[in-house]
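Minutes, project check-in
Item: structure for the 730-residue chain
Input as provided by the requester:
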Amino acid sequence: MSDLIGSAALLSKIDQLRELNVGSMVPLPQMVVVGDQSSGKSSLLESLTNIPFPTDAELCTRYATQITSRRDDESRVDISLLPGPSATIERKKKLAEFKRPSLTPEEFRAKFPELLREVNACLGIRTDINNESNSTGTVFTDDVLKIEIRSPKEDYLTIIDVPGIFRNPQGVTTKSDIEMVRKMVENYIKDRRTIILAVLPSNVDIATQEILSLAEDHDPKGERTLGVLTKPDIVKERSGKNVVCNLVLGKKKPLTLGYYVVCNRGADDDDVYKTPEQRELMFNEAPWNTLPRERVGIAALKAQLTQLLSEITKREFIPLRQEVIELQRKNEHDLGALGSPRETETEQRTYLSSIAGKFQTLLTSAVMGHYVQDDAFDKNPELRLSTIIVNRADDLVTEFGEKGHEWKFATKKNQTKLEDVKESSASLVAAMIPQDLNGVIGSDFSVISNSSEDTNASSFLEDDGLSDFLHSLPDFNNPQIGIEDWIKDIYKRNRGPELCSFGGSILCSAFKEQSSRWEDFAKAYVSDCIGAIHAFIRRALNLLCPSGLDDEIWSFLADEVIERYKASLEKAVFLTNVERNLKPYTLNHDYSSEVNKARSIRLGEALRSRSRASPHSENVITIDLSSIDQFSDQKASIDHFKDEIHDALESYYKVAAERFLDNLYMQAVDYCLMNGNDTPLKVFSQEWVIGLSSDQLEMLVGDSHKTRAQRDTLKRRREDLAKAMKILRG
């Protein structure tokens, strides 16, 4: 017994945890008595605790009763009511006010029936269950009656009694009451730290006992189920007695903890003064005298229960403490997920301003490409905004270089290649200027490509209904072959009275048709960038806000953000119109240089075909002046102008394309979408939050009734768990 006394402190801690309702959050070591309504449960409890539990129907168990026995120098009994998991705040206050003075064990036993009636009244329990005309009160409740017994002779034991299972409604009991009791029993016996005391009447076939089936459901191996066989005195047949003995001896339906057989006072036992020892004299008779003495009688059962509870408490104490620590962590996480309280205007504005500040901090890192400052960039590729926008520009270079023009330019020998231009230029758009604008890099550009961040962007655009005003790139064919014939046709359709040159209208018409695909490219490219911007906004809000709030914030931002999206598209169309609908003009000296270079190459090719090698040096060729005259005479006027128009068009196209793509990136994307004063990325800011009215704040981030209830529950749980840890560490 000294070892059991040594575990008294642990048992006391477990009882304190149970009072804090920690048992509803984590399994506590406990012993639960379960059985049918007529199984002899009340009589067994009386024998174990010396509490005269009533056996009449009106006062039978309608709620769980926790009976705690502790050894103490002072003899006293205290009763209290513990709220169940479903108790409201008001009910908890009411039950906490149920105070009764301490009683001596003798006073308590004498007043127990009266105390039960007071408890039933406080809990709102109906005792007249057979009177269907009285509909006041409930039949069962998940609240708990706690009885704490202290005396110098008490053993260290805690037993929880739950209502007995019944199958047929009687009086005011209903099928829902049957189900409620069944669920209550299962809630108590399901925990792995619960010892199940299955009370089984000896005079009933054990195979018909539902409580044993329930125990098997939650303890399939029978490792924590202890069978208690009651009412052996009413088993008269020898065969019936042998069945009971076989259970105790483990010959039938064995349990790891085994079976015990006890003889208690029955409901119709007139001799209420008969002692347990006197009742158990029957075990000296056959066949009971063949059973092991440690498996027979209340004393043996009580010693085993005390030992079991002590062992499980010691074994599970450290794991229990760790589980409470984990519960604290989870509770803090759940509380943090709700955010700060948002009941007053100040709390709401502070809370939303904090989110806006974090959003802008994340945005700054995304635009600057400083991804190492936040782990979110590693887990969410759509947040790498600077990289995505640069990649979009590369995609535009590729596709625009291949298919941005209607007709393929004629190839001339010794002309500078696109690759050479790209490598030597530091400009973004210099990489986009081809000789014939065909066959460069790759072809990955589209309004939404197949990368993971683009898949997410597409999803966000569709969910928010933005796909309707954005544009995808048409499936253009490669530029057409035969530009010389096309230029001749342009010349014939637009020539004027000029004698020695072609008119400006010819170049204007040719350029407008050659650049007819530019607007589609511009709108598709900007739409693609809008998709990336939108994916960033939605993902960032999703990461920074508790569930659901990101959608609420977006609903407030949507109109202004979408207007700014549209402004960038309008800028793209404006830039296209400037290039295509105005008279071709440039201050860029590259135009003249390119025209002169083209003429030189063309003349050089013509002269080379009429030259001959010098007999004096391999590096010298000879050209007759008469050949030049002959070449000039043979060149028809229309062919001459065709070449001039081609060279002028190609040279101007290069300059205009470079200017167009530079402006498209700098103005429509970088200024309108990324870094300008009025980009969609800058709508959600702390300044925007300051401008919200109190009604808008309440609508946007005010705590819902559900959230307030969740926060209150988590705060109460935080307090209970803190108290629990203080108990476990004390």
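Outcome recorded: The chain has 25 helices and ten strands.
No further action items on this chain.
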